[in-house]
Amino acid sequence: MRIVLVGPPGAGKGTQAAFLAKNLSIPHISTGDLFRANISQGTDLGKQARAFMDAGRLVPDEVTIAMAKDRMAQSDAENGFLLDGFPRNVGQAVALDEMLLGEGVKLDAVLDLEVPEDEVVKRIAGRRICRNDSSHVFHVTYNAPKTEGVCDVCGGELYQRDDDTEETVRTRLEVYHTQTEPIIDHYRCQGLVVTISALGKVTEVTDRAMEALKKSDEG
């Protein structure tokens, strides 16, 4: 299957993408991984992206699109892929449509993870990270440490990242609504959008997504 995964920040896209890609035996292609791989490998596209990032500027669509095209051309993506973070806007969605049309293939589904805005704020603003090891992540509501402000694993100080504050999260949501959410309407016109609730346990959301994708594929 060829799937695009969309949803607001805090919807759990990265987590769901990993599970879905494994269950469907297709590669998980994320924008972040594309950037990191191209930059670490010193590709021409990576050098271009790095120059924009070092200058504090957004990487242009054409660079992101070219990275995605190169990745989707690799052998492991021959029978499908799951795109996470791309396309990020309607311009990128149109470019993806044209890219796939040129290859004689098409998307099977656009999976839209739906989460109420207040829940997104609660999820992200409640995160606390260990200063000693950023892989130690807690949540004031869903995964509270035994001692407030102290990492259960190593005893390090827990802190809230600057981009996890409620004000920053609401700004990120506004960017999502303005730039990314319109791609849902773009794909809805093509009959590709499958919307599911991203509330509940990770496994519940994964099961919900797999069932919705199965019905979409059968339809």
Describe the overall structure.
GO terms for molecular function: AMP kinase activity; ATP binding. Monomer. Residues 30-59 are annotated as: NMP. This is Adenylate kinase. It is found in: Cytoplasm. By secondary structure, the chain is of the alpha/beta class. The protein has a domain at 2-27 and 74-116 and 171-218: Rossmann fold. Helix content is 49%, strand content 15%. The chain contains nine helices and eight strands. It has helices at residues 13-24, 31-41, 44-54, 61-72, 90-103, 117-125, 166-180, 182-188, 202-218, and strands spanning 2-6, 28-30, 81-84, 109-114, 127-130, 137-139, 158-159, 193-197. A five-stranded parallel sheet has the order 2-3-1-4-8, with helices on both faces. α1 (13-24) packs across α9 (202-218) and α4 (61-72) packs parallel to α5. The longest helix has 17 residues, at 202-218. The protein is globular and about 55 Å long. The protein starts with a strand and ends with a helix.
What would you say about this model in short?
The chain is α/β, with parallel strands linked by helices.
Supply database-style keywords.
219 residues; Rossmann fold; 8 strands; globular; Adenylate kinase
List the helices and strands and how they pair.
Blueprint: E1 2-6, H1 13-24, E2 28-30, H2 31-41, H3 44-54, H4 61-72, E3 81-84, H5 90-103, E4 109-114, H6 117-125, E5 127-130, E6 137-139, E7 158-159, H7 166-180, H8 182-188, E8 193-197, H9 202-218
Parallel strand pairs: 1-3, 1-4, 2-3, 4-8
Antiparallel strand pairs: 5-6, 5-7
Helix pairs in contact: 1-9, 2-3, 2-4, 3-4, 4-5, 6-7
